[in-house]
Design brief:
By secondary structure, this protein is an alpha+beta fold. Helices cover 34% and strands 35% of the residues.
Amino acid sequence: MKEHQVLQQQYELASKKLVALEQSFIIQHETNKQLALQISELHNEIVGLNRELNFYQNITQGTGSSELQIRDFYLSPAPLDNALFNYRIVITQGKKISNAITGTVSLMLKDKDSKTIKHDRVLQHKLKLRQVQVLDGQIKLTDSAKPNKITVTLKRNKKKSLSKDFNWLPKPVHSL
């Protein structure tokens, strides 16, 4: 009977240790998953920052193109509104100029058939560029709008000087 009691106590002690180890394993496993996700996000951020660094090095060292360019277009969904999207456009030119290039930058959303999607308001920015201009804004979609592409057009002296299409691929922003 004493031996049975001793074995019962050992069994209960071993069971408690097993439960504690299982809980510890679950916590460690979840921590590892979170760390792997954070490492992936930081790696993506590093890749983006390196791309931006190369971009600015090209501009400051004069190794980039001297023509007017829509260099970068970034699109991400707004955190609290599914119909709202934040965008950033980077426009550059490498020529040494005495006066800034002026005009307008407009954005048009297009569906899969390349038809322009109607908006309540025109998405336009003023262009005043020496070497680099970054434009930020937001696009609010209606429930029926299903964009496939976004066209960015630069106009100088009311004449189209440059137009470029970008795929509608919002990149989610993860918070750490």
